[in-house]
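Standup notes, structure subgroup. Blocker cleared on the S-adenosylmethionine input:
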Amino acid sequence: MTKEQLFIQLVEQLSSPKLFYGHGVVDAQDEAMMVLMHILKQKVDKILSTGQENIAQPYIDKARSYVEQRLTSLKPMAYVLGEVNFCGLSFISDERALVPRSPFAELIQNGFKPWLNMKNIHSALDLCTGGGCLGISLAKYNKHIKVDVSDISDDALSLAKENKDKLSVEVKLIQSDLFQNINDTYDLIITNPPYVSQTEYDELPDEYKTEPKLGLVADQDGLKIPVEIMLSAPKYLSKKGILFLEVGYSDELLESAFPAISFEWIEFTSGGDGVCVINRNTLIEHESLFQSFLNKASILENC
Ligand SMILES: C[S@@+](CC[C@H](N)C(=O)[O-])C[C@H]1O[C@@H](n2cnc3c(N)ncnc32)[C@H](O)[C@@H]1O
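Run returned:
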């Protein structure tokens, strides 16, 4: 059997209506290629240019078994393979943290242009780091930046440690409920916190239910943690510091919760949205709005 024939067979199986694509994989073709890249340890170009070459039976068996596991477990393929490519780097991926898929990858790869000159950034925090994909990629491509990564989950941090070791990157791991155990200030804070409401979570496809719920769901229609971050961030940003916050499809909700703030949303060329950029002064200016949003929720919660 040739590589091309196996690819066609995998695509056919992966086109099952049981499966949902939304973890950085676009469709069945994309996922079949991900499997081939994993088993053959080859890049797309190489696989495409050698499509007529035969594949040894053990590779065929392995590929079929991965697809079988995907179909029976409904886990995202990254968990099945135990590996995912993010920001041009190979990360270990398993149920200890969400599958990396953030559009932050594009920002990191293009040096946060036009918002930042990376030469002027000396320290950065990846808050809610999960398996470390954002902070570790940032550190890998910017060796001069001192990067800290933090998360409330010990499981997530143990995965981040494995990824940092695998990719030989220097980052400090901090276990922290948001900023609770953070004692430094940073030129840059990047964060992809939980921003899904419980109602939205209930309706998500099965694949998302295999990820840690702690990484997805936040109170107050998904906005509680993002707003807590905007409220507290100024204390942890240097004077000219800047926050990049991902809220995904909760962007419109955030806009409508704070009509007085003109959020600056980033446009991505390779897909994804819902990341805004806010400097420290703007965050300070709107502190009372963030506080009253959070106060309203505590009143309701205490009723
Ligand atoms: C959406 S995931 C993001 C993971 C990773 N940064 C990424 O982009 O793939 C959110 C992460 O926030 C963490 N988290 C949830 N609540 C938190 C809190 N109160 N303080 C710190 N981290 C928290 C979860 O454990 C999870 O790893």
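Discussed briefly. The two ends are 66 Å apart (CA to CA).
Next: hand off to the docking folks.
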